[in-house]
Amino acid sequence: MKITVINGGMRHGSTWHCKEAILKAIGEHTETEVTEFSLPRDLPHFCVGCYQCFLKGEQSCPHAAFVQPIAQALCQSDLIMLASPVYGLDVSGQMKACLDHLCYQWMSHRPSAAMFRKLGLVVTTTAGMGLRRTGKTMRLSLKYWGVQKIFTFAKPVAAMRWEEIPDRKRKQIEQSAQVTASGILRAAGRGARLRKPFFRSLLFAMMAGMQKKNDWNPTDREHWEKQGWLSGARPY
Ligand SMILES: Cc1cc2nc3c(=O)[nH]c(=O)nc-3n(C[C@H](O)[C@H](O)[C@H](O)COP(=O)(O)O)c2cc1C
Fold it and tell me: Where do the domains of the chain lie, and which CATH numbers do they carry?
């Protein structure tokens, strides 16, 4: 299984250890090839809102040299893992900056056909609050990129450091990682037989309708035309 991880931080803290536990659990059952990006090291910029990605194409982003290796790895993977600690009741700023750079591949713009066959996983930890909202921020990107099935691993660790977590709780987290890994492996085994999310089909049809009328962004429209999506073809 090809896995791409985006770490929304550089610390080897609780979120990183949760992510590692899941990778280890998956690796016990299948061969894995893991590509990891850690932020801000691998994308040390904020989106500047220049609209070049939307209007001229993703290669025109001033930060394309950082963004495109991430986007390509995502496209080549079977499982996409987004991992962020809770900061101020949401994802870390560096994770949000990365997700902003990838907005051009939302279904409202130029989704990649490859995304529609992928599994996603969001991983987050908090001292106490904010798991739901943080998970949702990452899940929304995966969902609007078109990802087929999304898993969530969210743990209230009540700690500033992984080492502070009592042994018993760390064991529970590791057991929980096994359960998440089993779910992912089952879904990967089902492949094309996985249920197609109704919301995704509905949104895709709405976006196709919108792109047919699109006279404001030829780059987006051409993308949809080229894939045959304006003549009824579907990526799922
Ligand atoms: C800048 C910052 C903001 C944080 N904001 C919150 C918060 O809003 N709610 C909360 O319960 N914990 C918050 N925390 C605690 C972390 O979410 C928690 O310790 C998390 O497990 C850290 O993950 P890590 O070990 O992977 O870095 C914050 C920590 C930092 C450094």
Answer: 2-196 (3.40.50.360)
